[in-house]
Amino acid sequence: MVRSIGLAAGIALAFGACADSTEERIRAKQLAQGCTHNSDCEGDLVCMFGRCHVQCYEDEDCRPPLFPYQSRCVRASSGVNVCQLDSDRECSRDGDCQGDQVCAADAQCRDACTSEDACIAGLVCSATGECARDDELTDDGALSEGSGGSGGGPSGSGGAPAEGAEAGAGGDVNDGAAGPGAAGSGGEGGAPGGAEGGAPGGAAGADDGAESPRESEPNDSRDEPNELLLDTDIRASISHPDDADYFFTEVPASPAAGGYYRILVTDVGPGAVLVQAYSALNHDRVYYDDPIQLGKSVFGFFTGAPGAAFYLSIARRAGTASESSFDYTLRVEYTAIDDPYEPNDTQLEPAAIAIGEPVKAYLFAGLESATASAADFEDWYSVEAEAGLLKVEIKDVPLDVRMQARVYESTLTPVGAEEKGVTNGAPLSFERELPSSETYLLRLTYVGGSAQPATAGRMDAPDELPDHFTRPYTLTLTQ
Fold first, then answer.
1. Among 98, 129, 139, 203, which has the highest number of CB atoms less than 10 A from its own CB?
2. What is the mean pLDDT of residues 444-452?
3. Residue 161 lies in a domain
4. Strands 379-385 and 438-446
5. What pTM value is reported for the model?
6. Average of per-residue pLDDT across 393-400
């Protein structure tokens, strides 16, 4: 039982269940939060596929009460297995799945197999070559297209609780045989998950077939926020004119470049929302949008420095014809900036590069408070070069950045003037005559006096991110 206790303790810690205060809860790294290393995750959680996971040893480790919902144990890397996250379960092709998993006949990501030995304990190898539970297979040993999600099984007992008159969730309708799905246990009037006449082969669990998770009240101030579940649709409500919903998130400590958040507020009811993000450091507002129009969705973004923390607030926009109460859906996604040359924002910590080595990096600054300084965007490099001609070439410049560069001796004596691209997105190429063989420094940044590359803003569409978020520049030094 040592292993089971450890798993349960890891999950409790991941959800802040053992925290004694709001401050402790908001510091805890949640299950499914973005990560780069195991150290980014709290307790016994491990970093696999870029998110914090619960490690498992057999399939039953990924079922309640050891795991928050019914999942499955999948292979992540050699010797490590993890409980599959809801967000990694559904698929339409193999490329939708993590690692070496395949998209099975039930549109679920599963481990492939040729024999039962290839499957984790508690799972068997189906006739169609995927690891599954016995109760997910047909009489001939094949994985049924009607087996539903892994979070519930064919009995339908995993239907999520329903509130009021809402029905308990069952599996997706399909052409398979009828399944005896039971009503969700949490709400009155839960509808059966498997009625006769071509019903779901199995009920969905905590996510598939169930409603999105809801906010947890009270969360009406910065003193009692909900911990923000990233990459998850969260259903929430404005319950009265002065209501506000607060959520908290912390930027992972690595990678060193930080990353950016994408905010999506959709399915807004008969009201207008005011969406704001605040720094937990000094409560400066880093982002806001108030579209005024009733029912209008909000799309926005802001950057975050490693270890920075933020509050997100959703409220009713005053001065509009909004009804006093309405629902909305919140989704916040975090994307890390993969820049292996960071941190290199000053001449004190330049990234060492070599002559002839192409460097791909981002001109990016993560926020801690409301604004970033010009120095936050600087990238410094050091290179061992011989006396003579040095050629500097910068390509793939982001379309919203006008690049600027300068070469220095190790004493910070400039070697020639500063060079600037002719416009945003323009490549920059120049040559310098180096006086001696030594270590030289190169500083890259945006052209001063021009608009600073965006660190927060509104979007008219969900994917209208600044170009420098997604386009790395390419730097090459040659002699």
1. 203
2. 84
3. no
4. antiparallel
5. 0.59
6. 98
- 6 and 126 part of one domain: yes
Q: pLDDT by residue (tens digit) across 145-154?
A: 655 444 443 3
Cα 248 to Cα 456: distance, rounded to the nearest angstrom: 17
Which tokens hold the place of 309?
A: 């923390």
Classify the C-alpha dihedral 390-397-421-407 as positive or negative.
Answer: negative
Mean pLDDT of the chain: 82
Asked if the model's pLDDT at residue 265 lies above 70, the reply is: yes
Q: What's the CA gap between 265 and 23, in Å, rounded?
A: 26
Identify the three-state secondary structure at position 376: helix
Percentage of the residues of the chain whose pLDDT score is greater than 70: 78
- In the predicted model, is pLDDT for residue 76 greater than 60? yes
Q: Are residues 330 and 364 in the same domain?
A: no
- Show the tokens assigned to 415: 């070697």
Q: Give the tokens for residue 261.
A: 């958040």
Residue 86 clears pLDDT 90, i.e. is over it: no
What is each CA distance from 467 to 142, 225, 291, 364, 402, in whole angstroms? 47, 32, 24, 10, 12
Residue 255 shares a structural domain with residue 317: yes
Q: Strands, E, within 54-140: which ranges?
A: 73-77, 80-83, 102-103, 109-110, 124-125, 131-132
Residue 183 has pLDDT above 50, yes or no: no
Are 298 and 375 in the same domain?
Answer: no
Taken as a whole, the chain contains a residue count of 479
Long-range contacts of 123-126 (CB under 8 A, 24+ apart): 123/59, 123/72, 123/73
**What type of residue sits at position 118?**
A
CATH of the domain at 460: 2.60.120.380
Q: Taking a C-beta distance cutoff of 8 angstroms, is the pair 48, 76 a contact?
A: yes
Average pLDDT for residues 233-251, to the nearest whole number? 96
Do 331 and 355 lie in a common domain?
no
Last residue of a domain, one of 336, 366, 401: 336
455 and 364, same structural domain? yes
- Per the CB < 8 A criterion, the answer to whether 253 and 281 are in contact is no
67 within a domain of the structure (yes/no):
yes
Question: Could you tell me if 148 and 141 are in contact, meaning their C-beta atoms sit under 8 angstroms apart?
Answer: no
In a domain, 108, yes or no: yes
> Which of these, 458, 433, 428, 461, lies nearest to 446 by C-alpha position?
428
Name the domain count of the chain: 3
- Residue ending a domain, among 110, 136, 162, is 136
Structure tokens at 178: 């009828």
Question: Looking at the structure, do residues 15 and 48 belong to the same domain, yes or no?
Answer: yes
Residue 346 resides in a domain? no
In terms of Cα–Cα distance, which of 421, 416, 230, 237 is closest to 331?
230
Two structure tokens written together for 238: 């404005």
Q: Which two tokens stand for residue 90?
A: 């559904």
| Cα–Cα dist 431/111, whole Å | 54
The reply to whether 329 and 356 lie within a common domain is no
Instruction: Quote the domain boundaries for residue 87.
Output: 2-136
